[in-house]
Amino acid sequence: MLTININYLLITTSLVFVIGLAGIIFNRKNILITIMSIELLLLAINLNFAAFSIYLDDIIGQIFVIFVLTIAAAESAIGLAIITVFYRLKNSIQLDPIKKKLTNKI
């Protein structure tokens, strides 16, 4: 059996988390890329939980991963439904019209 050092997993999860965070910070125009970046953040956190769960020989982390994946799936389904309705109304999935409406109401 091939054993992987936990440092490699932590470096991988950190890299995936930074990529997701950069996607949220640098992309302010497209809703779909923002949702994908949030999914990358959740994936990195889940991989981190699973790695520490295996490393510490505890099942609680793996159970928590299942709960987070369930929440992430629901978030993706609702987000994609909102994007579909928004695209049908505006023929675009850009964030600029949403930001303008929110700033006008405040």
UniProtKB/TrEMBL annotation:
Topology term for the membrane: Multi-pass membrane protein
GO cellular component: NADH dehydrogenase complex
Superkingdom field: Eukaryota
GO biological process terms, semicolon-separated: ATP synthesis coupled electron transport
Subcellular location, record wording: Membrane
Pfam families for the chain: Oxidored_q2
Matches recorded under InterPro entries: NADH_UbQ_OxRdtase_chain4L/K, NUOK/Mnh_C1-like
Keywords assigned: Membrane, Mitochondrion, Transmembrane, Transmembrane helix, Transport
Residue stretches spanning the membrane: 6-26, 38-56, 62-87
GO MF: oxidoreductase activity, acting on NAD(P)H
Main location: membrane
Family: Belongs to the complex I subunit 4L family.
UniProt xrefs under PANTHER family: NADH-UBIQUINONE OXIDOREDUCTASE CHAIN 4L, NADH-UBIQUINONE OXIDOREDUCTASE SUBUNIT ND4L
Name recorded for this polypeptide: NADH dehydrogenase subunit 4L
